[in-house]
């Protein structure tokens, strides 16, 4: 294996600091999915209440 000099290592630029990683994108997609699911559930419950179509609490 070729040994790399210290001066060369100081000039190395790279990594995922400026771009989005797959993990971050996956977390954002899951968050959006959860928000849509909560909105759908809330909208459905509002619709059921306004249409007086709720189950009685016995």
Question: How does this model look, in words?
Answer:
The protein has 58 residues and is an all-alpha fold. It has helices at residues 6-10, 22-50. The longest helix has 29 residues, at 22-50. The radius of gyration is 26 Å and the shape is rod-shaped. The N and C termini lie far apart (77 Å).
Order of helices and strands: HH
Shape: rod-shaped
Distance between the termini: 77 Å
Overall mean pLDDT score?
84
* Secondary-structure content class: mainly alpha
What about the largest sheet?
Answer: none
Q: What would you report as the Rg, rounded to the nearest angstrom? A: 26 Å
Strand portion, in percent? under 5%
How many β-strands, per DSSP? Answer: 0
- Summed up, the helix count is 2
Note poorly predicted spans. none
Q: Share of helix among residues?
A: 55-70%
Q: What key attributes describe this structure?
A:
about 60 residues; mainly alpha; 2 helices
Compose a concise summary of this entry.
This protein has two helices and no strands.
Per-chain topology:
Blueprint: H1 6-10, H2 22-50
């Amino acid at each position: 294996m070729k040994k790399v000099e210290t001066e060369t290592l100081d000039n190395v630029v790279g990594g995922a600091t400026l771009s989005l990683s797959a993990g971050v994108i996956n977390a954002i997609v899951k968050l959006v999915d959860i928000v849509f699911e909560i909105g759908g559930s809330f909208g459905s419950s509002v619709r059921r209440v306004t249409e007086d179509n709720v189950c009685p609490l016995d």
